[in-house]
Amino acid sequence: MPARFVNLDRETPMFLPYDLREWVPDGHIVHFILEAVEQIPTAHFQVNDRGSGSEQYPPTMMLGLLIYCYATGRFGSRTIEAASYSDVAVRYLCANHHPDHASICAFRTANAQAFQAAFVTVLQLAGHLRVTKVGTISIDGTKIQANASKHAAVSYARAGEMIAQLELEVQELMTRAQQAENQETTEALDIPAELTRREDRKAALQQARQVIEARAKELAAAQQADYVAKQAKRQAQRDAGGKPPWANSDSAERDPRPEGAIQLHRSAERHHESRQRPALRTVL
């Protein structure tokens, strides 16, 4: 019976509208981040109040986008923009919109302090709900819960320490984001324009494959011709009664072992012969 495989069809479009919520598991951290940022006031975030220009993305969406991507190890604005196409969770978070890298960078730069405070608040909410990990950020929620039952002064002191630690972690993430932004600006690697369309990309791949196959055939032909020439030369020497070129005239008489090994072997032979000789006894 021949092997059976699952049918993969990427060409047929979806005729019914798809629900991105079905593609993201219920326990995914993106659900918590979305619900947490909805609890944070965003009226103080800088937006275009004049209403001129293109429609802008809501601060809540941009806030959740940055927090989720930073927490999952994606910092550069170009990397985040690419994730809005390739990452299902990010597509769900952005409601299938795709913020460009310039908008992402501008929002982060204009609202740096407000974003940092909101990020810390989200991590605090995670600690109170005993969400032990937000992406790659570990949170000790048991200590936050325990502080609530202690003396008020001790609880406030410990809470201050916890907030300070969270602020340090968020500041480190923002520093990494700025470094990634600088690196992407100076070392941005984009797909060439002639390869952006699917048809052009397939044609370029087919052409590259043909070039590789042609080179492989040329190399194989050259190697075959060289092999045939060597075989013919050796056969001609055999027919003439001579030795092949790789045979040395004194190979039969010369010991193939290194000189040091020969000397060591001879010493061992002499030692063995001396032990085999009968001992001479003096007859009185």
Q: How many individual domains?
A: 2
Q: How many β-strand runs?
A: 2
How widely separated are the two ends? 95 Å
Radius of gyration: 38 Å
Strand content: under 5%
Write down the oligomeric state.
single chain
- Biggest β-sheet: count, sense, barrel? 2 strands, antiparallel
Spans of at least 5 consecutive residues with low confidence: 141-154, 280-284
Percentage of residues in helical conformation: 55-70%
Order the strands across the largest sheet as they lie in space. Answer: 1-2
Q: What's the SSE pattern?
A: HHHHHHEEHHHH
- Give average pLDDT, whole number: 77
Question: Can you give a write-up of this model?
Answer:
- With 284 residues, the protein is mainly alpha-helical.
- It has two domains: 20-190, no CATH class; 194-243.
- It contains ten helices and two strands.
- It has helices at 29-37, 59-71, 77-86, 88-93, 101-110, 112-128, 141-147, 152-186, 198-239, 259-276; strands at 133-134, 137-138.
- A two-stranded antiparallel ribbon has the order 1-2.
- A hairpin with a 2-residue loop joins strand 1 and strand 2 (137-138).
- Helix 3 packs across helix 5 (101-110) and helix 6 packs across helix 8.
- The longest helix is centred in the C-terminal third of the chain and has 42 residues, at 198-239.
- Residues 141-154 and 280-284 have low confidence and may be disordered.
